[in-house]
Amino acid sequence: MSFWNKIIDTINGADSRSARSREVSQDSSRYVFVDVEVGLKDKKIHDIGALRWDGATYHSADKQKLKMFLKDVDFVCGHNIIHHDAKYLFGEGSDNWLFVDTLFLSPLLFPERPYHHLLKDDKLVSEHLNNPVNDCDKARDLLMDEVTRWKRLSTISQLIFSTLLKDYDEFKGFLAFVNAKVGRKESLAELIRSEYAGKICEHADIENIINKYPCELAYALALINTTDHRSITPAWVLNNYPNVENLVGILRHAKCREGCIYCNKNLDVHVNLKRFFGFDKFRTYGGEPLQENAACAAVEHKSLLAIFPTGGGKSLTFQLPALMEGRSVHGLTVVISPLQSLMKDQVDNLAERGITDAVTINGLLDPISRSEAIQRVMNGDASLLYISPEMLRSKTIEKILLARHVVRIVVDEAHCFSSWGQDFRVDYQYIGKFISQYQKSKQCRETIPVSCFTATAKQKVVQDICDYFKQTLNLDLHIFASKAVRTNLRYSVIHTDTDDDKYLKLRSLIAESSCPAIVYVSRTKRTWQLAEKLTRDGFKALPFNGKMDADDKIVNQEAFMNDRVRIIVATSAFGMGVDKKDVGLVIHYDISDSLENYVQEAGRAGRDPDLEARCFVLYSDTDLDKHFILLNQTKLSISEIQQVWKAVKDLTRQRMHACCSALEIARKAGWDDSVSDIETRVRTALGALEQAGYLERGNNVPRVYATGITVKNIDEARKRITESLLFENEEVEKAVRIIKSLISHKYIAKAQNAEAESRVDYLADILGLSKSEVVSSVERMRQEGILADSKDISAFLNDAGESENKSKRLLERFMTLERYILGHISDDSLRISYKQLNDSAQKNGVETATEKDIRTLLYFLTVKGYTRKKEDVAHNIELSCQMDVESTLKRFERRMDICHFITGWLYGLMSPVTEGETKNNGIQFSVVELLNDLKANGNTLLDTMQDVRLEDVEEALLYLSKIGALKLEGGFLVLYNAMDIRRVKDSRLRYKQEDYRMLSEFYKQKIQQVHIVGEYANLMVRDYNAALQYVQDYFQMDYRRFVSKYFKGERVREIERNVTPEKYRHIFGSLSEKQMEIISDKESRCIVVAAGPGSGKTRVLVHKLASLLLLEDVKHEQLLMLTFSRVAAIEFKQRLLGLIGNAAHFVEIKTFHSYCFDLLGRIGNLEDVEDVVARAAQMINNRDVEPNRIAKTVLVIDEAQDMSKEEYALVHALMKSNEEMRVIAVGDDDQNIFEFRGSDSRYMTQMMKESEARFIEMTGNYRSSRHVVDFANVFVNGIKGRMKSDAIISMNHKEGFVGIRHHVSHIMYKPLVDDLLANYGGGSTCVLTQTNEEAVILVALLRKHGLNSKLVQSMDGFRFWNMAEVRMFLKQINSGVHTPIISDDVWEKAKHKTFAMYADSASLHYLQRCITLFEETNKIKYHTDFKEFVFESSVEDFCDLSGADVVVSTIHKAKGREFDDVYMLITKPQHIHNEVLRRYYVGATRAKERLFIHTDDSLFDHMPADEHRAYQQQYNMPDEIVLQLSLKDVNLGFFKSRKNEILALRAGQALRFVNNYLYDCCTNIAIAQLSQKMQGELRLWTDKGYSVISASIRFIVAWRPKDAPQEEKESAVLLVDLTLKRVVSDKAN
User: Fold this and answer.
1) What is the C-alpha separation between 999 and 993, in angstroms, rounded?
2) How far apart are the first and last CA of the chain?
3) For 858-894, what is each residue's pLDDT tens digit?
4) Which of 89, 679, 861, 1604 could be stapled to 866 by a disulfide with Cβ–Cβ 3.0 to 4.6 Å?
5) Each residue of 102-145: pLDDT tens digit?
6) Residues 232, 330: contact at Cβ < 8 Å?
7) Residue 1449 CB neighbour total at 10 angstroms
8) If residue 452 lies in a helix (H) or strand (E), which one and from where to where?
9) What is the rounded distance in angstroms from the CA atom of residue 1199 to the CA atom of residue 1331?
C-alpha cells in the first residue's frame, strides 16, 4: 500500500492518533519530525527532539547522534523547520532531504475562522515546555490535518496552488509529500478566474501578478476563498509577504472600468448603502451629492478632505467604505478622534443597526473591556477601530495594527492639524510620523489613504491640512466641501444688559417655542445652575457637560432624544454625533468662542429640512471677556513649554534618556499638580518639544518582561502556584492565566520578537488585567522559581549624590521628619496646612524640615496606605492614619531598617569609576535577588527579617526613589513611569519663539476668532443680511482678505489683543507714551526702570501686572511680585482688584520676607526675619524648594533700589532656577534711603548687565508742580553715581511754590508751625522730620494750635500682633476655627466680641483697619493667611490718616506718600553724604504744589526757590512736649505680677504720674515704673524746667524676653505718653 493511499485511508476512517501512527509507521516511505530548543540569549542548541515514521523517538542535544537517527530518511518535517531548526541543525548541508514545513502551509490550508486548533498565529499551541518530542507529536498531528485539507481542495485549487508554489523551498517538500500535480503557467490565469468567479474582479491583471508574486497570490487566494469576512491573514505572513494585502486589494477592491459581476455587486456604493444602512440614497446638500462623491473617492483609494456641516452624515461617509473594505479585503479602517465619548456613541449607533464591526480602545475602558476590544481587533472581528491620537504611542496598539491589513486612516476633527483652526492639537502632528513608521514596518508598496473630516473650516485651515499630508506622506487630498447654505435656519442676536435681563429673555424665548430646545453655555457649572433655575420656573430642563458621569450623560441625552424633557442646557460637548431632527430652537446663552463653533452648534437645529428653526444669541458686552479669561487659563504658553524643557533637562542631567510620568514632569516643571487636565498639558508641551526637535518620545512601554519559564507544563505551573503561600486565593487564577499565555507563546522565539508577547503591558492588555496585577504575579512567580529571575530594575545612585553617606544622611533626614509627622496624627485626624506642619516640626527640633519634604512624605504615605489625606485648593490638609498609631509606627520602623540595608547593598554593587569613565550607568538588579540577600544577611538588624515580603522591599525601594536617595527605573516602577523620553538637543539650548510658532499662531487665531464672533453678534443686531454675508465671507474668502475687509486701521491691532477694545481702553487708555513703552515690552528678559518721583511708578506696575495677565499669556500662578512693605503689597492688590476684578485675588504679591517665609515653610514673623532671605536663596540654590513654589515666568520687583545683598541673592537664585524668567525691576536710585540696613541701588545696575536687559528712564513727574520739580532737579545733581541721566520733567500745569527758610537757631519748631498756620489752605499737609522725637514734639505743638495732627512713626520694640486688641481677636478666631478656612460666622463673632470689649480703646482703630484691609484683599479667609498677615505687619501699616489736618512723619515713613503742601524740618547733619542728600530729595519730592524747607544748614542757600527768607532769632523748645515711651523706657520686670490689672485698662485711659511710677486713677494702684534709663532722661528734662503734667496709655502690649524659657508666661506691658510742661518761663525770644 502506497503512503498516499494510507493517508487517504486515514482521512476516510482512522481518526485516532494511534491508528494513524500505526499505519504510517508500516509504510516504506521515510519521514521524521524534528524540533530544536534554542536559547533566546546565547542562540545555542539546548535540546533536540525527533519522532520517526516507525514510532522511534530521539531526545538529546547531540547533533551528531541525530544524524545517525535520520539515516535513510526522505522527508524532514517540522514547524518552522526551514528557517529555524534546519539552520541550527544542518547549516547549508541537508543530505538531499526534502523539508516539509507545517508553518507555511497552515495559512494556506486553514485561512478560515475558526483557525486550526493547534495554531495561534505562527505558533503551535502547547501546554508543555522544554519537551521537543512532544512538540514533534503536535507538528505531526498538524501535518496530517494539512494533508487532509489539501485533499479536500478541488482539483483546480490544488493545481493553482502547486503551480504557484512549485519553486519555493517552503512548499517543495510538501508538494512532493502529497505528490501534487503542477499545471502550465500559461493557463493558470484562466484557471484562477474560473475558480474564483464572482469573488474577484474579472478584469484584474492576474497574469502580471502570477509572474511577479506567485507565492503572495497563493496566500491572497486562500483568504479570498474564505466565507467569513472576519478571517484574516496571520501577521507573520504579512510580515514575510507584505504584498499579500496589496494583491487582495487589486483582486477585490479595485473597481474595473468595464464593469463585472463582482465589482458591480460588491464595489457599488449604492448597493452597499442599502445593504449596510438600509438607505436608498445618499444625503445631498443643496442638490450637491457631496456624501456620495466622498464615499466613492474612498472606495477608489483616494485620500480626501471632507468639510461637512453639522448633521451632514460625516460618519456614514467613512463608515460605509470601511465596512465595504472589511468585507472585500478583510481590512481595518482606523478612525482617530480626540473625542472619546463620540467614539463610543458611534460604535453604539452601528451596533443598534446590527453592525458589530466597530471597536473603540481608549483610556476610559476598564481592563476587561480593553482586553475584549484588543482581541476583537486581533481576531478580525473589527473593520473599524476608533482611537485617540495619544493611543498611537501605545506599543499594544502598534502591535495589533501591524497584525491587521490597515486600509485607511480616518482623521476626525481634522482642523486640529492647523494652527489656524479653532482647536489645534500638537498630538495631531504625530499622526503623519506614525503612519510613515507603520508603512515602513509593513513594507507597504503604496501609501495608506487618509480621509480627513471637519464640520467647518476656512481656507487657511484647509490649506494647512493639505500641506501637512503632502509634506509628511506625499498625499494629495481631494477636497469635498459644500457651498450650500441652510435655508431653514433663522438667526437672531438679542442684546442684553445684565444677567437678570439675559435670563428673562431666555425664559421668554423658551416659553414662545413648542419645539425641543438646546441652550448652550460656556461653563460647566452654568449647565447645572441654569437647568435648575429653568426647572424651578416651570420649564423642565436637564444639564449636559463633558465633566458629568458617563451614566448621567447617557440618561440626560436619552431623555432629550426621547422627548421626556424638552430643554437641554449644555456646553459644546453636547450634540456631537447626536441627530435629533425636531430641534427647533438653539439659544446661545453665552456666545461661542468662534464662528466655526457657533455655526456648528447652531446647526444642530433644523436637521429636518422641512422644519423652520430659530437660532438666538443672547449677547452682552462682557461675554467676550469670559472667553478671553478662559483662553488665558487654558492656553499653553511658551513659558510653560520652557518650564517643561527645563524639567526634561533636569531629568536627563545624568543621561540623555528618562522614563517618567506626566505628573512627575509637571512637578519638576513647577506646575500646580492639582490642575485637572495637567497630564494633557504636559503631553502637549512634550509634543511641541518633539516637533521642534528637542526630544523624542518613544512608545509608552514598560520595559519589564515575563521571560525565562522554568516549569515543564501548565499543570506543573498551576500546582506550584496553588501550593505557594505567596498567592492569595483570588490571585491564583490570574497567575495561572499569565503563565498559560506565556507557555502558549513558547514558539515566539522562532518568529520575530521574543519580547513582544512577554511584556507586562501587552499581557495586561490581552488578559484584561491591570499592569499592577501582572507585575505582582510575575514577581511572585520569580520568587517561586516558576519564572527565572530577571534584573529588570536599574538604580542610578549618582542621581542622588556621590557617596553612600549622602544617601544615608538624606534617609535619616526624612526618617526624623516622618517619625514626627506620624507621631502627631492623633487617633481622630489632624487638620493643618503644610506650612503649619513644617513650622511646628522646625520649632520641635526637626530643623531640617521643609514643605517640599513634607509633601513628598505625605504623598508616599497616602499612596502606600499609611494615611488618608484630604486637601483643598489652597493645599490645607486633613490627615488621619489608616491603622492604629502603634501599627503604623511599627511598619515605619520596619521600612527604615530595610531602607538602610538597601542603601548599603546597592552601593556595595556599585563598581568603582575609573578616571575618564562616565558615571551614568545604572546598577541592574532584581527585587527577588534583593529580597533573598536581605533575608540571608539582614538578621543583624532585626530578628524578623525572615518574614520580610516582596511588598516590603518594593515599598522601601519606592520610598528611597521618592525621597531622592536614588533614582530607579523599570521593574515594578513601570506602574509609576509611563513615558519614554530621550533628550536630543544640548541642555544649554533654549526653547525659542520660533519653535513656538505654530502654537503661537493658533492662540493668535483663537483671540481673533473671539473678536470675529463678537463682530458677528454686533453686525447681526444692525443688519441681518450683512451678518450672513460676513459669515459666508469668513469661510470662503482668503483669511487675510476677510480681515482687511471687515477690520480696518486700528481694528487690526484690536483683534490681536486678548481683551475687548472697550476693556483695553479702560485699562490702558490713559497711560503715557513712556508708561506704555514698559507695558508693551513683552520680549526683554530683564527690564530695569529708573522711575523718578511722581512718574506713576505704582500705576505702571499695576497696569503691567494687568497686561501680563490679560495680554502676555502669564498665568496668575506664574507671576510673582515682591515688595518691601506690607502696605505696598496691600496697595498693589487693591489697585489690581479695581483694575481687573477678582482675578487679582490669585496673584502672588508679597513682601520679600513673606515670600521667603513661604519658601522656608514657616509662618511669617517680623521677629525672625534676620536671615530668612539669605536662607531662602540658599535653599533655592540647593534645590531644596518645591519647583512649584519658585517656577515663575515673571518676577516684578517694587522699590528695586532698596535691595540688599540678600534680596539680590534671592532674585539671582530665582533667575538661575527659571532660565526663561522675565524680571521687571522698578525703582529710583535717587530714593535709596535705607543704606543703613544694607540697601544698595547698584543691584539695579547689576541687573542691567543681564542678557537681553533693557534700561528705561521714567522722568515725567505727574505729581509735583513745576517749581518743585525745578528745585528737585538742581538738588539731585549733587548726588554722585546716579543711574538717571535725564532731568525730571513736570507734567503738572501748576507753577507751584518753593520757600526756603534759613535759621540761625537749631530749634525750629515754632517758626515751622507759625509758617504752616500762616499758609494753611485746607489741602493735604505734611510735616517731615528726621527723627521720631522731632515728630512727636511737632504733633503736640500743632494740636495745641487747634490742628488735628496724626503721627506716622515706627513703634520701636513691639510688634503689631502684641497689641492687646489684636491678641483678643486672634484668640477668638483660634477658639472658633476647626478647619483651615475661617467661616464668616466665626469671623463676625470674633469682630463683634473684640470690638465690644475694646469699644473705648483709643488704639482699636489699628485692628479695625487691619481687618478691613484683609477682607478687601482676601476673597477666602484662610486661617494661616490671616496669621501671616498679622505677624508680618507693623503698627504703622494700619495708621489711618483720614481726617487729619496735618500729618507728621519722619522722611523714611513718608516715602511713597504725597501731599499738597510739605514742610521739612532739616537740622544740620554732622556729615553731608549721598544718603543724607537722597533723604532730603525724597522729602522734597513728596510735595505736589508747595514745598517749605526750614533749616539751619547752608546746603540750600543757592537752590532755586520762589522765596529765600533768613531768620536770626533763637527759639526755645515748646512749652509743652510729649514723650512716647517704648519698651526700653519702662521697667519690664515691674509688670510680671500685674497682668490682670493691666488688661483691665484701655488705650487712651489717663494715668497719674508720681515719682517715676504710674498709677491707675480709679484704684490708685501703681501699675508701671519708668526704667532707669528713662528716669535719667526725665531728670534732664526737669533740669530744663519741664515737669510731667499728665500721662495716658498709648498701647497695651504682650511681652516676654526673647531668652525666656518656653513655659514662662507673657506679661502685659503699658506703653505710655507723658506730657511735659515747662514750669519756669524763659525770657528768650
Assistant:
1) 10
2) 154
3) 888 887 888 888 877 666 788 888 888 888 888 898 8
4) 861
5) 999 999 999 988 777 777 666 777 666 667 898 899 999 999 99
6) yes
7) 27
8) strand 450-454
9) 23
pLDDT digits (tens, 9 = 90+) for 48-107: 999 999 899 999 989 889 988 998 889 999 999 998 889 888 877 666 789 999 999 999
Identify the sign of the CA torsion 1557, 1561, 1564, 1565.
negative
> Do 317 and 276 contact (CB within 8 A), yes or no?
no
**Peptide bond preceding 702 in cis form (omega within 30 of 0):** no
Contact 1349, 1312 (CB under 8 A): no
Helix (H, G, I), strand (E, B) or coil at 233: coil
DSSP 747: G
Measure the CA–CA gap between 1425 and 1319, rounded to whole angstroms. 46
Backbone angles phi, psi at 474, to 5 degrees: 55, 40
Cell digits of residue 573: 460637548
Euclidean distance between CA atoms 724 and 1488, whole angstroms: 90
Cell of 59: 531526545
The total of other beta-carbon atoms located within 10 Å of residue 553's CB is 19
Picking from 481, 856, 821, the residue whose alpha carbon sits closest to that of residue 668 is 856
Nearest alpha-carbon partner for 1267 in 1292, 1285, 1231: 1292
Q: Measure Cα distances from 1588 to 1579, 1613, 1621 in Å.
A: 11, 20, 6
HSE (CB half, 13 Å, CA atoms) of 159? 15
d(CA 1370, CA 1433): 14
- Compute the half-sphere exposure of residue 1277: CA atoms within 13 Å on the CB side of its CA: 11
Q: Are 855 and 834 in contact (CB under 8 A)?
A: yes
How far, in Å, CA of 405 to CA of 412, rounded? 21
- Return the DSSP state at 234: -
| Order of strands across the sheet that contains 793-796 | 923-925, 793-796, 967-970
Whole-angstrom Cα distance, residue 667 to residue 686?
A: 14
Contacts of 328 (CB under 8 A, 6+ apart): 252, 253, 266, 267
303-328 in b/e burial notation, b at 16+ Cβ within 10 A?
Answer: bbbbbbbbbbbbbbbbbbbbbbbbbb
Question: pLDDT tens digits, residue range 919-939?
Answer: 456 788 888 888 888 888 866
690 vs 679: CA distance, rounded Å: 16
The position carrying cell 472589511 is 326
Q: Is the dihedral of CA 299, 305, 310, 312 positive or negative?
A: negative
Find out whether 1209 and 1203 touch, Cβ atoms under 8 Å. no
Please say whether the beta carbons of 630 and 522 come within 8 A.
Answer: yes
SS (H, E, C) 961-1029: HHHCCCEEEEHHHHHCCCEEEEECCCCCCCCCCCCCHHHHHHHHHHHHHHHHHHHHHHHHHHCHHHHHH
pLDDT digits (tens, 9 = 90+) for 249-306: 999 999 998 889 999 999 999 999 999 999 999 988 777 888 999 999 999 999 999 9
Q: DSSP 3-state assignment of 567?
A: strand
Long-range CB contact pairs, 116-119, < 8 A, 24+: 116/142, 116/145, 118/142, 118/145
Do 1424 and 877 touch, CB atoms closer than 8 A? no
Task: Find out whether 814 and 899 touch, Cβ atoms under 8 Å.
Answer: no
Q: What is the CA angle 860-865-869, rounded to 5? A: 70
Query: Is beta strand 1325-1329 parallel, antiparallel or unpaired with respect to 1459-1466?
Result: parallel
**What are the two backbone dihedrals, phi and then psi, of residue 51, each rounded to the nearest 5 degrees?**
-130, 115
Angle of CA points 1569, 1571, 1576, to nearest 5° = 120
Beta strands in 531-621 (DSSP E): 541-544, 567-570, 585-588, 613-619
